[in-house]
User: Which sequence fits this backbone?
């Protein structure tokens, strides 16, 4: 093999190694997000978000926030400490693709978990089982991977002592104690539909190998 051929092969291997490393960094980023969310450290989660992209998005109940200033609002919505609140989401079944140009990445997850809070009427603990699907786009800013478009696609959420099949749209029953100034500035998408025995569950396409980011595939 000629010196030029060796150099080309080394460059190719270095490129592929960077993409493999990116997957590990992205997994750690998503797990860090959920680790912080479990103890209401939403203010720290904002440090994981893209801040140089005007279209950065974060999903919330009943819609999503878009824009660097808007995505910082959830940090003010859940003050720390917030006694009685806990949200645990176990991220599983990841499918991750890193762009050929190494600038962006895409991933999907299935998340199962539970949410606990204090019932304001009874002053007793209230718990919910919650399952969702996640679709997230990532972008590299200043050499670090950041969450770019964060989308949660609901599956079902039901009280721990209730039969989940009795609530075909249980996400509508979750309390939405969100001040008006902090509510999503965009409505839900057509894919934000949970499980129902009467309709087909929307298909969320997992990422496929790609060279550069296409806005049409945005989560």
Assistant:
């Amino acid at each position: 093999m000629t010196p030029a051929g060796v150099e080309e092969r080394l460059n190719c291997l270095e490129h592929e190694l960077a993409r493999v490393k990116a997957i590990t960094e992205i997994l750690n980023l998503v797990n860090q997000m959920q680790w912080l969310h479990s103890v209401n450290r939403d203010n720290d989660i904002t440090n994981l978000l893209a801040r140089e992209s005007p279209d950065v998005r974060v999903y919330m109940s009943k819609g999503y926030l878009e824009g660097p200033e808007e995505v910082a609002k959830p940090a003010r919505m859940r003050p720390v400490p917030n006694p009685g609140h806990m949200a645990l989401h176990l991220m599983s079944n990841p499918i991750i693709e890193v762009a050929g140009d190494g600038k962006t990445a895409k991933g999907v997850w299935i998340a199962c978990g539970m949410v606990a809070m204090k019932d304001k009427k009874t002053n007793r603990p209230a718990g919910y089982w919650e399952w969702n699907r996640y679709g997230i786009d990532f972008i590299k800013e200043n050499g670090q991977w950041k969450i770019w478009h964060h989308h949660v696609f609901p599956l079902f959420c039901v009280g721990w002592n209730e039969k989940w099949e009795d609530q075909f749209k249980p996400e509508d029953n979750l309390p939405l104690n969100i001040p008006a100034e902090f509510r999503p500035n965009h409505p839900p998408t057509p894919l934000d539909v949970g499980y129902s025995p009467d309709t087909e569950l929307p298909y969320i396409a997992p990422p496929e190998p790609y060279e550069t980011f296409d806005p049409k595939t945005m989560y």
Observations:
- The domain at 3-217 is CATH 3.10.450.50 (Nuclear Transport Factor 2; Chain: A,).
